[in-house]
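Running log. JK asked me to keep both predictions on one page so they can be read side by side. First protein, sequence followed by its tokens:
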Amino acid sequence: MQFCDDCGSMMKKQDGVMVCTNCGERTEQTVDTEEFVTTEEQTGDEIIESSEDANFEGKPTANDVTCDECGNTEAWYTIKQTASADEPPTRFFKCKRCGKKWREYS
């Protein structure tokens, strides 16, 4: 992964050069790798959905939480980095009994 020297945003490879996804800055590839993985190349199992209508069923189950709505102690969850990389990730939950969704910041 390569980041823009001007604004710090992630860059992607385009026509043989790296292009900033935010400001459009173009530069040579400095990361020593031949293969970059993009979301277009990832399978559905590798992409984390955290939208309002995300399908949580089939995701890992947490038994260390309690739903405020129904008191159930089982919920599906996903993890997503919502802040800067030096902050802990956020866990998104969906109650297995009533379907209530909530998040937990570590």
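And the second, directly underneath as requested:
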Amino acid sequence: MKEVPAEICNDCGEDFVDESVARDIMAMAEKISLSGAQIDVRRYVPDP
């Protein structure tokens, strides 16, 4: 998903989404899955 509103932790710099956004993303993914689309989730790994 693109343009997901995220926050950045002031202590560690990690990005995160709040509970309501995470719930919306999961609901959207479920709808996509039920429509027959395949979902590919990958971890971002920067080039060395």
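Observation for JK regarding the second prediction: The CA atoms of residues 30 and 39 lie 10 Å apart.
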